[in-house]
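User: Is it possible to get a 3D structure for a protein together with its bound compound? The compound here is beta-D-fucofuranose. I've pasted both below.
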Amino acid sequence: AALFASTALAALPAAAETVGFAQIGSESGWRAAETTVTRQEAEKRGHDLKFADAQQKQENQIKAVKTFIAQGVDAILLAPVVATGWDQVLQEAKEAEIPVVLLDRQVDSSEDLYLTAVGSDLEHEGRVAGEWLVQQVGDRTCNVVELQGTTGSSPAIKRKAGFEAGIAGHDNITITRSQTADFTRTKGKEVMESFLKAEGGDEICALYAHNDDMAVGAIQAIKEAGKKPGTDILVVSIDAVPDIFQAMAAGEANATVELTPNMAGPAFDALEAYWKNGTVPPKFIQTESKLYTQADDPQAIYESKKDLGY
Ligand code: GYE
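Assistant: Yes, that's possible. Here is the predicted structure of the complex:
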């Protein structure tokens, strides 16, 4: 790629490289924003981004990675849909000497199979949500329903464990139902409907959703069931997408933990240093997590975020 840059692509910075991005899909607003930001970062830095959408299927992602290897790209960005099953394809990339950077989700594979991973502390996010709920309910009895992310994905596993740790020791708070809704709005609504109709559906005090999109779907289900989300049923979730701030401004959601959609910035920074001087980054580059509540002027935050292409 460096040769190219000095001749045919003279307008690009000298270090223009080709990068394959094996994205999960567009299951959530956060995911769509991550794709947008990744394209913007690549363009800004003069890299050629090859994009593959796996429609939430690991099989498709593995195929995409193999194709990138065959094309001889200079690096691969991989947002792994689930945590297991990556050893072989990561080994192939390693043998081809193509650095792989994991984005936002983690894998169970050995660390020497990828260059670095950019992401948040997923367990911490869940714990922050749990601790927020503990503060809210005090000594009151609170039955919580949980909407889990994609089964087998690192955020679903860690956000569940983190929340449980956050409420640990508070016997007044109980998770009464917990089911996957695959990080989507549609399934969030469907599963919440089933929670509300099931035994104990009238005694739900709070909803914890592993992402905002499922919470937004669930809010709709709560309203259709004749209850007030945000008051009758507290709503706490993760991502901080524009729509959850709109719900917070309307009093229909209570809190969210922010996850930046800009995983590509730190990923390209690490790759550029690696390409240039062989600098090996740390194995984990952690992004910040921040809790937002209704007290944080959600309307203003919505206005400031909505243009990001969420
Ligand atoms: O929270 C969710 C998305 O992998 C951490 O995936 C990410 C999660 C994010 O679909 O909205």
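The first strand starts at residue 18 and ends at 23. Residues 29-45 form the longest helix (17 residues).
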